[in-house]
Design a protein that fits this description.
Layout lengths: L5 E3 L2 E3 L9 E3 L1 H9 L3 E7 L4 H13 L3 E5 L2 H7 L8 E5 L6
Parallel strand pairs: 4-5
Antiparallel strand pairs: 1-2, 3-6, 4-6
Helix pairs in contact: 1-2
Length: 98
């Protein structure tokens, strides 16, 4: 079976989960959704400043969320369909109507 990839800007990114309207991008948005318990999965960039993503990782693990590390912030941003780097992204929980 071949994994589907998000392809943006000529770079193939195997983060197809982020090709969803249920995503949030950026440290502040992710932090707000994480604190209110609205996330089901967290994505963090390995090349982001550790002090910025450490608290997000700790809180996500305390809440029992999956945390996936991405090699580069630029790849994470492109997987989220933005043209800049992203240190963090998350997937919101699906509502009962979805």
């Amino acid at each position: 079976m071949i994994a589907r990839c998000v392809c943006t800007g000529g770079i193939r990114v195997p983060l197809c989960e982020l090709a969803s309207p249920d995503r949030v991008v950026g440290l502040h948005q992710v932090q707000r959704k994480l604190q209110t318990g609205e996330l089901r999965k967290l994505f963090l960039a390995k090349d982001a400043e550790f002090r910025l993503v450490q608290a997000l990782e700790e809180e996500a693990l305390q809440r029992g969320l999956d945390v996936e590390w991405v090699d580069e912030a630029l790849l994470l941003g492109r997987a989220c369909a933005i043209s800049r780097s992203a240190a963090a992204a998350g997937l919101k929980k699906r509502s009962a109507s979805q």
